[in-house]
Amino acid sequence: MAMSRLVCVGDYEQYAEHNLPNAVRQYFNSGANYEQTYADNVAAFKRYRFRPRYMRDMSERNLTTSLLGHDVTSPIGVSPMSMCRLAHPDGEVALAKACESEGSCFCLSMAATSSVEEVGQAAPGCTRWFQVHVLKDRDMMRRMVQRAQRAGFTALVLTVDCAVHGKRYKDLRNQFSLPPHLKLSNFEEELKRAKSVVATGQSKEEWGRFVNQAFSPAHTWQDIQWLKSVSHLPVVAKGVVTAWDALEAVQHGADAVWVSNHGGRELDCLPATIDALTEVCQAVGDKTEVYLDGGVRSGLDILKALSRGARAVYCGRPALWGLAKDGEAGTSDVLQILKEELSVGMALAGVKDVQHVPTELVVHQSFYSAL
Ligand SMILES: Cc1cc2nc3c(=O)[nH]c(=O)nc-3n(C[C@H](O)[C@H](O)[C@H](O)COP(=O)(O)O)c2cc1C
């Protein structure tokens, strides 16, 4: 589809909608079961309203911050996503390079189609984190974590919300699987060595089954300590939506908590992440950094999340849509659009610094219906 200039994330979404192969588009843009959480993540942001403070000097705004002690020039990162080479041949390498140039943090998925080594070499200046699932094969998991550490990744992001995979009806109908020209690069390296090698030369179907079965549903909060015993990296618990899990994470040694519902892809009927954020922030207090992803589609969504207590905000699908449009350049465009919208929103709302966004800047819409 021909489109004039793409000026917002919605334009990139439309582009991807019309240009990606059907099964890939549905793999990216779908949620579990009847997709209640997937839809509500986006809808919920629209239920919050700004209460701005006008007539302040807004000639300068600060978008720099730090994440687990590392300086970044943007509070907008890219979430871990599997198989990004489905969107563009440069996949995760392009995402990392875009994050490097936009001063964003990039989180690489364990199930990526680029390895920790490839990403580390391509974007050495990028603040990069490595997302992990607990694997049945602990030796394999330990080696992968240590490879990430050697490749300059500075934090581990433990996904806690996915003991097994959710039911995504579209993927089931499409019988979606990794196409033969792609590989899950972090595992591919390991397979050469791992004791649980199925057989080299196996078919892609066998390979897909192997990786799926590699994830352990027997994960527990104790795995945070295990990760700390095999590396010196801080651990972020990703997928927290309740106060009790936020407390479990911190009590078991998590250095930060990432409010996420996996973009609505695993357990359906979870709260939207912007709705869950306040509960989590109140539970962990000021000392633990809290991040959010899920449904972020504009700089104003980001400002709302910062006001409700997130230190940084990550986006998943918007980065994939930018990647689908134009690789690294398309992803950079999306990150720039979000940054610019955030900066304009800050100026219009009377906020100078992303590290000091007042809580009272944002209220739920019910504040007005109660009047
Ligand atoms: C195609 C796709 C693959 C994903 N793969 C992973 C993954 O491997 N590990 C993980 O923790 N989260 C994964 N996620 C969830 C994202 O990290 C993130 O939580 C979610 O996409 C945020 O919602 P948004 O897409 O609305 O921004 C994936 C999401 C998508 C869309």
Automatic annotation (TrEMBL):
One of its GO terms (cellular component) is peroxisomal matrix. The active site is at residue 262. Keywords: Flavoprotein, FMN, Oxidoreductase. Its EC number is 1.1.3.15. InterPro entries: Aldolase_TIM, Alpha-hydoxy_acid_DH_FMN, FMN-dep_DH, FMN_HAD. Belongs to the FMN-dependent alpha-hydroxy acid dehydrogenase family. GO terms for molecular function: (S)-2-hydroxy-acid oxidase activity; FMN binding. Pfam families: FMN_dh. FMN binds at residues 109, 131, 159, 238, 293-297, 316-317. This is (S)-2-hydroxy-acid oxidase. Its cofactor is FMN. One of its GO terms (biological process) is fatty acid alpha-oxidation. Residues 1-367 form the FMN hydroxy acid dehydrogenase domain. Glyoxylate binds at residues 27, 168, 260, 262, 265.
